[in-house]
Amino acid sequence: MIPCLILLNLEKVGTLMTIQKSIHYFKASLESMQLSSHTIKAYLQDLAQWQAFVNIEALEDLSFEVLQEYLMHLQSTGLKPTSLRRKRVVLHRFLTFCYEKRLCDEKFYDYIDPIKMRKHKAPKEVLSTEEIEELFDYIDGQIAINEALLGTSNHYDYLYYCWIRNKLIVGILLYTGCRANEAVSLKKMDINIKNNTILLLAKGFKYNVVPIHPELLTLLKGYDEQIQLLKNVDILKVIDESIYMFPSRQDSGAHLATRTLHDLMLKLSGVLGRHIHAHLFRHTFASYCIAANMDITTLSSLISHSNPSITLSIYTHEIEATQKQNEIKKLHFDKRS
């Protein structure tokens, strides 16, 4: 007869979570968050490299010594600091996922110390003109698809409204440089077509008046025209009764949640194949303004910075790059006579 203790141990061994299966679950989680295929592929490559090195099957067989051996190995490979940091971050994120989802009982991620990197002012990432065009083309495509199905069901009516709303939100982010919360909390009365201005409630409950760019004016007029095609009484009631440009579906007295905007950004990230977020439109607005030689004080006012020095500190690289481009044009070599 096999002792009960041995039977219990055999049962426990039989239910141990393998590293391979944990990575499979982690991959599914990344996909559910709609990370780009490129990002997920990079994560899995880093984890495969780690898995091959540790050569352990069960997740619970990990230990401080095993993880430290791998981290010391990475350190000895001469990787760039950014690559080294990325691999540690991926492993930390994976092990955190495993603990939070109860795939293991130990906080293995605590054994991975973060790398402190020297801070430096790097150029802000921005959207290219091609990417901006691609985003609007995609949104226009979604509008067209659901416009063709208008009136067939509440579902398609609401999808149509969501996409014409999304197009205007993206336009407001892009052509005003406002923050995410400033966009979703915009009130109808804050848009003054007659004076060609938008009133934004910025940080610190300060109001900021921004001129309406001609392209944004076109988007505003297009939104009004497209909303006329919507005949769904329930949706129109929420829109009409709300003081907000973008009301909450559940409560017309509240504005659209920033979480909904975040979800939209995740979807648009899939369109471009890279991670984008609402603040990226703000950086894009500011960077393009700098490239167009806009006065820094004016730009600072447009993006509601309390002081131009803040704008200068954030966009130092963009300003320097533009200045270099302008100054290099002054160089001329006289032809020999």
Describe the structure.
This protein has helices at residues 4-14, 19-32, 37-54, 64-76, 81-100, 129-147, 154-176, 180-184, 214-227, 233-241, 258-272, 278-291, 296-302, 308-314, 316-328; strands at residues 191-192, 197-202, 206-211. The protein is mainly alpha-helical. It has two domains: 16-111, DNA polymerase, domain 1 (Orthogonal Bundle), CATH 1.10.150; 129-324, Intergrase catalytic core (hpI Integrase, Chain A), CATH 1.10.443.10. Strands 1-2-3 form a three-stranded antiparallel beta sheet, with no helix packed on it. α2 runs antiparallel to α3, α7 packs antiparallel against α9 and α13 crosses α14 (308-314). The longest helix has 23 residues, at 154-176. The chain is globular and about 70 Å long. The termini are far apart. Site-specific tyrosine recombinase, which acts by catalyzing the cutting and rejoining of the recombining DNA molecules. One of its GO terms (molecular function) is DNA binding. It holds the Pfam family Phage_integrase. It comes from Zhenhengia yiwuensis.
Draw up the topology in text.
Blueprint: H1 4-14, H2 19-32, H3 37-54, H4 64-76, H5 81-100, H6 129-147, H7 154-176, H8 180-184, E1 191-192, E2 197-202, E3 206-211, H9 214-227, H10 233-241, H11 258-272, H12 278-291, H13 296-302, H14 308-314, H15 316-328
Antiparallel strand pairs: 1-2, 2-3
| CATH C-level of the largest domain | Mainly Alpha
What is the rounded distance between the termini? Answer: 108 Å
CATH fold topology of the largest domain: hpI Integrase, Chain A
Report the portion of residues in β strands: under 5%
List the strand order in the largest sheet.
Answer: 1-2-3
Biggest sheet architecture:
3 strands, antiparallel
CATH architecture of the largest domain: Orthogonal Bundle
What would the principal axes of the Cα set say about the shape? Answer: globular
Order of helices and strands: HHHHHHHHEEEHHHHHHH
Structural class: mainly alpha
Could you name the ranges where pLDDT drops below 50 across 5 or more consecutive residues?
1-14
Rg (C-alpha, Å): 26 Å
How many domains, in number, for the residues?
2
Domain Tyr recombinase: 122-330
GO molecular function: DNA binding
Function: Site-specific tyrosine recombinase, which acts by catalyzing the cutting and rejoining of the recombining DNA molecules.
Pfam family, one: Phage_int_SAM_1
